[in-house]
Amino acid sequence: MAILKIARMGHPVLAQKAEPVANPSAPEIRRLIADMVETMVDANGAGLAAPQVHVPLRLVVFQAPESRADEGLSEAERFDHTAPLTVLINPELELLEGETEGGWEGCLSVPGLRGFVERPAHIRYRGIDHEGAAIIRTARGFHARVVQHECDHLDGILYPQRMSDLTKLIFDSEARHFLDQTRKE
Ligand code: NI
Q1: pLDDT on residue 185
Q2: Does the global pTM surpass 0.85?
Q3: Could you report how far apart the first and last alpha carbons of the chain are, in Å?
Q4: Catalytic position from the list 28, 92, 94, 150
Q5: Residue 174 designated active-site
Q6: From ligand 1's centre to the CA of 25, what distance in Å?
């Protein structure tokens, strides 16, 4: 396994549409997945898309741990709000409701910054996992957000392009000012 170099905003690989993975069980895809997981964990990220490691294929890894889920959820709700470490190949997203939700996002390809992004709050996604098994899940909260963020990478979209208010594109080190403001609102 290896820790891969992460492409940063401005590199053309982040702006292009990625190609479907033809053979999810190919040895080179298995190696890529192992390296992406190691790279994501090393960088302390919640997700990573193949284009971020300079491979223009439709493959993402992500996790939505309990610690990132909203507080006070019922057990049934937590099911949609969390996901174990997941490999998702050739994903398809379906938006389930019109309502959107705002949340702060960061990206390993946009280091040092974070931005407030409105996204659909409830989605369903499908794809294939690292063993070739079908995945179909519904997602809400941070889980829905991380899947949409990672799948956007496969279409050449970075989160600042999803922002409606660029005054909320800020440095990590200044996030405390916005945290205070959000609490007052
Ligand atoms: Ni990202």
Answers
A1: 44
A2: yes
A3: 46
A4: 150
A5: no
A6: 25
